[in-house]
């Protein structure tokens, strides 16, 4: 019988917290069971597998990130929208490293369709409308933004910018200025 108060949402939230403290790769059914103070078998009454648990963390994290980015974007356009999006993305990734790592997980198509992944894509493309890009340039620009943001936060989290006299934040600001310039002067295909 399932323990009172134990729900899939509570289990996934505990797994997300565990991901932030111990790393997404260390989220296991046993570790989550210890965290919520139940036996491993009790989790299986709510979550069928480790893959389902990790997918749940990814879905939760994508929604949290989309909410943060959406709130930051409200009423902004052009460069201001780009900077707001980027800063919300970076802040989430730095404050929630395990949750952020889960957002990079490949989800089954049905799960991805129900997740906030589509909201992320729509917000990114909304920012790019301010730069008047058409296809295939818009798709290339989406990929440029994602790879820049993702690469920067991975290097920053890994200590890649700890040496030298220039702060990571100053380099981040320069990168955003360079992205704005690039998007404003995009070479046509």
Architecture blueprint of SSEs:
Layout: H1 8-22, H2 29-36, H3 40-43, H4 50-73, H5 78-95, H6 97-102, H7 109-114, H8 117-129, H9 137-157, H10 168-184
Helix pairs in contact: 1-2, 1-4, 4-5, 4-8, 5-8, 5-9, 8-9, 9-10
Task: Please tag this protein with its features.
10 helices; Tetracycline Repressor, domain 2; 189 residues; 70% helix; mainly alpha
Provide structural commentary.
Keywords: DNA-binding, Transcription, Transcription regulation. Residues 5-65 form the HTH tetR-type domain. Residues 28-47 bind DNA. It comes from Cryobacterium mannosilyticum. There is one protein chain. With 189 residues, the protein is an all-alpha fold. The protein has a single domain, classed as Tetracycline Repressor, domain 2 (Orthogonal Bundle), CATH 1.10.357. The chain contains 10 helices and no strands. It has helices at residues 8-22, 29-36, 40-43, 50-73, 78-95, 97-102, 109-114, 117-129, 137-157, 168-184. Helix 8 crosses helix 9 (137-157). The relative contact order is 0.11.
How is this structure best summarized?
The chain has 189 residues and is mainly alpha-helical.
